[in-house]
Automatic annotation (TrEMBL):
Ranges of biased composition (kind: Basic and acidic residues): 200-230
Entries under NCBIfam families matching the protein: bL25_bact_ctc
Native species: candidate division WWE3 bacterium CG23_combo_of_CG06-09_8_20_14_all_40_14
Domain Large ribosomal subunit protein bL25 beta as annotated: residue spans: 98-181
Protein name (record): Large ribosomal subunit protein bL25
UniProt GO MF annotations: 5S rRNA binding; structural constituent of ribosome
Domain Large ribosomal subunit protein bL25 L25 residues, every copy: 5-90
Classification of source organism: Bacteria, Katanobacteria
Gene symbol of the encoding locus: rplY
Similarity comment: family membership: Belongs to the bacterial ribosomal protein bL25 family. CTC subfamily.
GO biological process: translation
SUPFAM superfamilies reported in the protein's UniProt record: Ribosomal protein L25-like (SSF50715)
Subunit organization: Part of the 50S ribosomal subunit; part of the 5S rRNA/L5/L18/L25 subcomplex. Contacts the 5S rRNA. Binds to the 5S rRNA independently of L5 and L18.
Keywords, sorted A to Z: Ribonucleoprotein, Ribosomal protein, RNA-binding, rRNA-binding
Gene Ontology CC annotation, any one: cytosolic large ribosomal subunit
């Protein structure tokens, strides 16, 4: 996927001006390279984040440069109050060097045990760390759960389909991805947790004491996280 971007000289607190112009400040980092401040259209950036993830190899076409840069999304910052996109960091990669990235797992199909109402699905891993060349990086792993017929059945890392000659997966092959548990058992655990909270809950706030919910958020408060299209 190609992204059109422009180099920017606006940095620091002045990037607020860019955001008012519906632009998102970003930067491209690379091993042994100086970071390049860039900006891209906010609408394009949001569209990008909805359709890609950390494991999607991108072509960043920067105005004034002859060749696009190969990169991955490494960090996303959003305003903690409004959720508005604040900044994106891209990690430039070499097609000749192996990289490490988290690849999302997509569970498809329907478990007969869940359909009957006997059990519920417990997802233990929804993304997995891999090592490979950028060109071999999968966008996601697909796992069919339609063979989970009974409570207690599960699927492990070993079930993932990939080219073992080109991709190395970090977790042990016997590690669980997803399992079917008794629905009633989970309901009892949840009820027990709620009861414990009611018994050991925090004491009421003293009159005049400010709670976290009532604190006025700072204007530039941001939240940093990684998004995936899982």
């Amino acid at each position: 996927m190609e992204i059109i971007a422009k180099k920017r000289s606006t940095i620091g607190k002045k990037v607020r001006i860019l955001r008012k112009e519906q632009l998102v400040p970003a930067a491209v980092f690379g091993k042994g390279k100086q970071s390049t401040p860039i900006s891209l259209a906010a609408s394009l950036a949001e569209k990008l984040l909805k359709s890609t993830g950390e494991s999607t190899l991108l072509d960043i076409a920067i105005e004034g440069e002859n060749e696009p840069r190969k990169a991955l999304i490494s960090e996303i910052q959003r305003n903690a109050v409004t959720g508005k996109l604040q900044h994106i960091n891209f990690h430039e990669v070499s097609l000749k060097d192996k990289i490490t990235a988290n690849v999302p797992i997509e569970f498809v199909g329907q478990s007969p045990a869940v359909k009957s109402g006997e059990g519920i699905l417990i997802t233990l891993i929804d993304e997995i760390e891999v090592e490979c060349l950028p060109a071999n990086l999968p966008s996601h792993f697909e796992v069919d759960i339609s063979n989970l017929n009974k409570v207690g059945e599960f699927i492990t890392v070993e079930a993932l389909k990939y080219d073992k000659d080109r991709i190395t997966i970090e977790p042990d092959k016997n590690e669980l991805l997803i399992k079917v548990d008794y629905a009633e058992q989970l309901e009892e655990e949840v009820a027990a947790s709620v009861e414990e909270i009611e018994v050991t809950g925090e004491k009421p706030k003293e009159e005049g004491e400010e709670t976290e919910e009532k604190k006025e958020p700072k204007e530039e408060k941001t939240e940093t996280k990684k998004e995936s299209n899982s």
